[in-house]
Amino acid sequence: MKQKVLKVHPDDNVIVALQDLPKGEKVVYNDVEYTVVDDVPAKHKFFANDMKTGDEVMMSRERVEDFFIVFACLGKRDLT
Fold it and tell me: Rounded to two decimals, what is the model's pTM?
């Protein structure tokens, strides 16, 4: 099965879509299932956890201060 998402660094709280992910699709990364809540185009990112204003966004071990849109992800569950 082709991998649909990846995390660049284990400390990141965003996940990269490797292909277009339609709203409602379930994807698994490291035994955790995520349900995509908006269409996510390939090479775009979505949050690994629910986020609120003021939360730090970490990508490639760096704090991201300027970003436009990162899609929220709900329905996370551990499959282990």
Answer: 0.72
